Amino acid sequence: MDELAKRDANGTTPAPPKLKVRIGLRLIQLSATLHVLGGVNDLLMQRLQPFHEAFLGYSSGAVPSASARLVLALLHALGAALIGGGVTMWWLAGLMRREARQDVLWLVAVLSLCLEGSVGARMLQLGLVFGYIPLGICLMALLGVACVAATPPAAPGAHADV
Fold first, then answer.
1. Which end of the chain has the smaller Cβ count within 10 Å, N or C?
2. Which residues contact 134 (CB under 8 A, 6 or more apart)?
3. pTM score, two decimals?
4. Closest Cα to residue 74, out of 113, 51, 48?
């Protein structure tokens, strides 16, 4: 086949399936890593940050201790969920690579949407501009899912060299 026959309708040469899978898996792994790092950051937070206090309508150090403990407990719970979700996404990406299991792609999408996607959307609803960070992490995972899903399923072990 000549080079022109290999081009798609837009006149571009499509990426080989292994490259799409490799890129998709790397995006999922990077997103999973960022899930875990965000969770560790939330778990390590020992006091409210100035933007938390400002959002709650208090000046620095004026938040009632019960309210501060509640907000920190919620942040720590979110951090634990992010770590668990990120580790699970890493494990699923490994399963996809080792066994060419595309049936687990929906799990990665749901995990990312429920964790980073919902957090980012809610942060933006509350007027917190840095909500774009978790949304970006979620979109990274969804792009990775789309890359892997766009390739035909292969035999088990076919992506082991990816």
1. N
2. 38, 116, 117, 119, 120, 123
3. 0.79
4. 48
pLDDT in tens, 32-57: 999 999 999 999 999 998 888 888 88
How many CA atoms does the CB half-sphere of 57 hold within 13 Å? 1
The tokens of 52 are what?
Answer: 């938390």
- Strand ranges inside the chain, DSSP E: none
Burial track 101-127 (b if 16+ CB lie within 10 A, e otherwise):
bbebbeebbebbeebbbebbeebeeee
Cα dist. 149→9, 139, 143 in Å? 20, 15, 10
Could you tell me which of 144, 122, 133, 141 has the C-alpha nearest to residue 38? 133
d(CA 80, CA 19): 33
DSSP state of 100: -
Taking CA 21 as the corner, what is the angle to CA 144 and CA 82, rounded to the nearest 5 degrees? 35
Q: What is the pLDDT of residues 111-158, one digit of tens each?
A: 999 999 999 999 899 888 889 999 999 999 999 999 998 887 665 555
DSSP 141-162: HHHHHHHHHTSPP--TTTTTT-
Q: Number of C-alpha atoms within 13 angstroms, CB side, residue 162?
A: 27
